[in-house]
Amino acid sequence: MTPVPEIRIRSCNEREIRPDGAYVLYWMTAFRRMGWSFALERAADWSRRLGKPLVILEPLRCGYRWASDRHHRFVLDGMAGHAALLAGSNVLYYPYVEPAAGAGKGLIEALGKNACVVVADDAPIFFLPRLLAAAAPRLSVRLESVDANGLLPLRAADRDFTAAYHFRRFLQKVLPEHLAHFPEENPLAAPLPPRLPGLPREIARRWPAADPDWLRSGHLAALPIDHEVPPVPGVRGGDEAAGSALSRFLDERLPLYGEGRNDPGDDVTSGLSPYLHFGQISIHQVFAALAERETWSPERLARTTSGAREGWWGMGPAAEKFLDEAVTWREVGINMASCRTDSERYESLPGPHSTPARNSRPAPPTTRCGTPPRASSARRGASTTTCACCGGRRCSTGAPRRARRSRC
Q1: How far is CA 296 from CA 18, 300, 329, in A?
Q2: What phi, psi does 48 have (nearest 5°)?
Q3: Which of 33, 96, 296, 313 has a Cα-to-Cα distance from 201 of 20 to 30 A?
Q4: DSSP-assigned letters across all residues of 98-159
C-alpha cells in the first residue's frame, strides 16, 4: 500500500482500521513539517487508499517543561506557515494552541471517534512517548506511529550505544540499505480526496482552532508560559526558514566547516539545530541537499566499516565533518532515547557517576580484564590504555568518558 518502510511503522494498539470513518487523522507532534516526512506520507497514503479526507492536527501544549515565549514563537511560526500553505487545499489543517495546562486533554480521543485511522509521530524524546502510550488504549481505532527521526530507523538497532565510535561502526554496516528509502519531498503532491468541510461542532467549540492571523503575530502574554525567555531576534521558525538556513549553510559556511567548526570565534555552524530539534526540517532533506552539492552517489561509500570519523561517506572533508555531527552524534542520542527509559537522567551516562564521599580518593581505573593499566601508558581520563595482563592488547578502562552533545 505504501512506500514507507515497514521498519518505520509501529502499531500502538490492537484496534482495527475503520473504513467507514469520516477522515484519516494525522497527529503532528514531532515532525512539524510538510515535506520529507514518513509520517505525513503514511497518513496521505491511507487517505488515498481509503478515499477519505485527510485531517492534520498540529497541537501545541503549554504545560511542558521549558515552555516559553521563545519555544512557542518558534513553533507558532511553523504552524502559521502550514495554515497558509494548506489554505484552499484538500487537507483540513487544524492548529490547536492550548490556552491552559491540560486544556487539550481529550482532544485526540474525541477526534479518533470519527477517524478511519490515526497516524502519529514516533519520536522517543521528551514527553512524546508517554503521550502516545496514554492515547493508544483510549482510541477506538488503530493508532500507528511512524518513525521519521533519522537516516537510520529506530528499530534498526536493538540496543543502545554508549560510545559514538561503536555506534559509528554499526551505522556504517547497516545504513547503506536504508539510504535507498527516502521520504517523499512533497507527500501531498498527488491528488487527495475532497476536503472535509469541518470538524464536529462540539469539538470545534471545546478545542477551537487557532486563528491564522494570531499564529503569525499574536501576543503570547495570555498563555501560562515563561515570558522571561523571549524569542531570539532575527530567528524565525517554520519550513521556509529551515530551508533558507540550509541553503545559507551550504552556500556560505560549509567550505569553512571542516577547519573552523571547533573555533567559537568562527561563525560556521550550520544553524540547523533548532529546526532539526522541532522537526521543521528532516535530516533526509539535509542529506539530499548536501549529496547534490557534493555530486554524491551511494557507490562512493567506503567498503570498510572501521568507525572512522572521516572517509566513509566519500564526500569532501567539510561535508564528512558535518555528517559526523548531524548523523553520528545526533542519532546516537536518538538511539539512546529509543532504547532506554532513563536517557534524560545524568545517571544514564556510561561509567560510575555516584558522588564520592568527602575526602575519599577515587578508585584507580581498571581495564576490561579487571587489572590496573600499566603506569607507563596510563593517562588520566583516557578511555583506552595498555592492559597489564594482556600485554600489547588494548582494553577499555573503567574511567568515565566525557559526555558530548551534537552541535551541528
Answers
A1: 44, 7, 21
A2: -70, -40
A3: 33
A4: -SSTTTTTTHHHHHHTTEEEEEEE---STTHHHHHHHHGGG-SS-EEEE--SSSS-GGG-SS
Q: Is 139 exposed, middle or buried, given 0-12, 13-18 or 19+ CB atoms closer than 10 A?
A: buried
How far apart are alpha carbons 347 and 349 in whole angstroms?
5
Phi–psi pair at 394, nearest 5 degrees: -105, 125
- The CB density around residue 400, as the number of other CB atoms within 10 Å, is 14
Q: Evaluate whether 81 touches 239 at the Cβ level (below 8 Å).
A: yes
Closest CA to 278 of 49, 32, 89: 32
**Within 13 Å and on the Cβ side, how many CA atoms surround 149?**
27
**C-beta neighbour count of 27 within 10 angstroms:** 27
For 109-135, the pLDDT digits (tens) are: 999 999 999 999 999 998 999 999 999
d(C-alpha 336, C-alpha 340), whole Å:
6
Residues 132 and 315: their CA atoms lie apart, in Å, by: 39
d(CA 221, CA 69): 9
| Pairwise CA distance, residues 376 & 317, whole Å | 35
pTM of the model: 0.85
Dist. CA 272–CA 258, nearest whole Å? 16
Asked whether residue 88 carries a pLDDT value surpassing 80, the answer given is yes
Would you put residue 375 in left (φ > 0), alpha (ψ -120 to 50) or beta? alpha
pLDDT in tens, 208-254: 999 999 999 888 999 999 999 999 999 999 999 999 999 999 999 99
CA 398, CA 380: separation in Å to the nearest integer?
11
d(CA 9, CA 151) in angstroms, rounded, equals: 15
3-state secondary structure of 396: strand
Give CA angle at 144 (142, 149), nearest 5°. 170
Report how far apart the first and last C-alpha atoms of the chain are (Å, whole number): 36
